[in-house]
Structure formats: C-alpha cells, structure tokens
Amino acid sequence: MSQNNTNDNDSPAKPDRTPRMVQGIRQISMAALQERIESQFLAENSPDLLLEAATDSARRDLIREAADYVMAVEAVVLTRPERNELLEKLYSNLFRFGPLDRYIADEAINEITINGADDLHIRRGAGAMEAIDTYFDDSDHLAKIVQRVLSTAGVQYSENTPFIEAGAMMLNRPIRLTVAAPPISPVLHVDIRLHPAKPFTLDDLIARGVLTQSAADTLQSALKNNRGMMIVGDVGVGKTTLLNALFENLPGHSAVVERSAELRVPPDMEKFSGADFAGQIKAALDLRPPWLVLDEIRLDEWAAMWAALSAQPRPNMLWTFRGATHPSRFRAAFSMAVRRAQPAIEQGLIVDALVEQLSVVAVLARRESALRLITLGEWVREGDSVVLKPFVL
Predict the structure, then answer these.
(1) What is the pTM of this model?
(2) How many CA atoms lie less than 13 Å away from 109 in the CB half-sphere?
(3) In 3D, which of 329, 332, 339 has the Cα closest to residue 309?
(4) How far is CA 48 from CA 53, 60, 152, in A?
(5) Which residues of 169-193 are buried (b: 16+ CB within 10 A; e: fewer)?
(6) How many other CB atoms sit within 10 Å of the CB of residue 377?
(7) What is the DSSP string of 44-95?
(8) Pairwise CA distance, residues 342 & 35, whole Å
(9) Phi, psi (5° rounding) for residue 222?
(10) Model confidence pLDDT, tens digit, residues 36-89
C-alpha cells in the first residue's frame, strides 16, 4: 500500500480566522468595526464625490471622517498603531485591492490568480505560479473588493453576467482582470495581468532577452514600410507589452481598439475600448485611420475580423491574436474564421488577406522560464496557400 509523502510545508498555512476584539459600548471585533466603517463610508460618499477625490490625501480624509464617526458612536478607543492599521486596511479595501496591494506594487510580479478567498498564486516574470500565504477574510470580502475594482471600469459581474474582462489602474499599473463567478465557476475566480507602471520600450525588451536587436530593427522597419503585422501567442506571453513598445513607430491619428484598458495609448491616437469589441472596431473604422491596432482579436470573432479586413479605404493593420503559435495551425484557424464570415469565399482571397494585410508574423511564447520571441517571419504565397518564411536575422 503506497503512502502519501506530501509535505504539508509545501503549501502556505491556512489563515488564522480568530477575531481580534476591541471594547466600546459593546465588544466588537476589528473585522466587524472595519465593515461598519466601510458601510458608513459608502453611505456617505456618492460615486461622483469619490471620483472628485482623486488624490491620496483627499481619499484618506474621507475615510478618516467615516472612521471617526463610527468609533465615536461605538465608543471605541484604539491605540495609535491599531488606528493606523485600521485606516490602512480601509484605504486598501476601498480604493485598492486589499491584501494584494503589496504584490501589485512589486514590478517583478506580472500575474495573480485567485481561486476563492484563500487560494492565491502569483507569477514572477515567466516563472512558475507560486502559492502565497496572503488571504482575503472570506468570500464576501473578496467579492466586495473585486466588484469595487470592476466598478472603476464601469462593469459588474452577476448571475446573468458571470464572466467579465476589464481593465483598471492599480498603484499606477495597468491591470487586466478576468473574472469568472458562479454559476460558471464554483468559487469566484480572478486572473489579474499586471503591466509595468512605465511601459517597456523595445530596448527594455532587448535587455530582458525577449527579442534581439536584429528582431527589433526588423519589426520597426516593417511598420515604417506600412507592412501589416500580427503578434501571436497564448495568454501572458507579452503580446500587449510588445504592442505597446511598437506604438512609437505608428503615425498619429491611428485607431487603437483594446478589449480592456491595458495599453498606454499615445495622446495623438484614437482609443476605443469596451465590452462591445465588434462595435468598437466599427467605430474605429469609421474614422478611416492610417493604422488599425487591435488588442486582442480572437479567431472566434470572425464577423468583426472580416469587417476590418474588408474595410474600404483599407487601413494598415497591427493586431494581436490569442491562439495557436504553430504557423500551420494558425493559418488553418484563420482560414476557418474567415469562412465563417464568408462561406463562399475563394481560398485565394484568404491568402491575399494574410499576405497583403497581416504579412509580418511575430510569435511569442514561454520558453525555459522566460518570455521569448520565438518566430519572426512573413507569409509567402505557395500555390493556393501560404507558408511562414522566417526572416534572416
């Protein structure tokens, strides 16, 4: 009979749920006091007032006012360290991401995964996911914070809309939240993609080994010569990061459509974002931009994809795709997507779309615990089909 050799020390210890109590008119736990103050704060402050309180000091003043009122009503007296700790937790819960703030502040961390209140993991760079010994108080605590963060993007999850993708700013970092809630997930599941506070340049990506100087020169040359480009890769391999680094090679008045607010779009470009991705693409095309940037289009969004490819006048294209990184598989998936939009289309027109509008291909992937540009090439006609021919770098 085999024995279970799992080492309990391999996983973080579960949180201590023993309540901390303080004395006032009645005995009350610190958690209950915090919840009481948060409720008072939200009752006192309308969304418009909270938007006006844009500075750190203004927000903290509002929190202190609510905290002082509740503690006076409850006759609670805290020591200075206890009060400071309480105010910091209130600020973190009401305006940030609660217990995750220290991880969001760490620029080395680029991904956080939450599976319920006490199953949290982080990723540093291209490394493996690591369990962390940080927890939310309970599922309600997690839900409240997620909903507050989502509210800054103007969205909320519910039983009718249990899946949400949205962008937000947290501690001066663009973040992307993918939320799956009941009934499609047994617990509240959140994936957080974290981008650097200062966008990476191509030089930064070269220094980090993501791409070579020769590859960077080729990418820049392609864009300056109005060659359409696709950046392909799975989740979390740096597609948006590379896209952001390429903006300086595009002309002003280009149109940028993003699924969530992750990109640092230059002020001279037109930015579109929102849940209606297809509608945002149409609005962008109506401007007749010199370049149409899409982050990220998926091959199951065939109608929006074909509308962009067949637009007149035809803009230059710079798109990111989430999907297969093997050229033949991607080509097949792309062809099937176009045929869903145009069932009777000739194969030659699909080839034309790849060769003429999305001719340059940059493929990103995770290799040996690092993010890498693994393929850089161009689509070349071969009869009625196309093959990806790598550039000589």
Answers:
(1) 0.77
(2) 21
(3) 339
(4) 9, 16, 12
(5) ebbebbbbbbbbbeeeeeebbbbbb
(6) 19
(7) H--HHHHHH--SHHHHHHHHHHHHHHHHHHHT----HHHHHHHHHHHHHHHH
(8) 55
(9) -60, -45
(10) 998 998 888 876 666 566 677 888 999 999 999 999 998 988 999 999 999 998
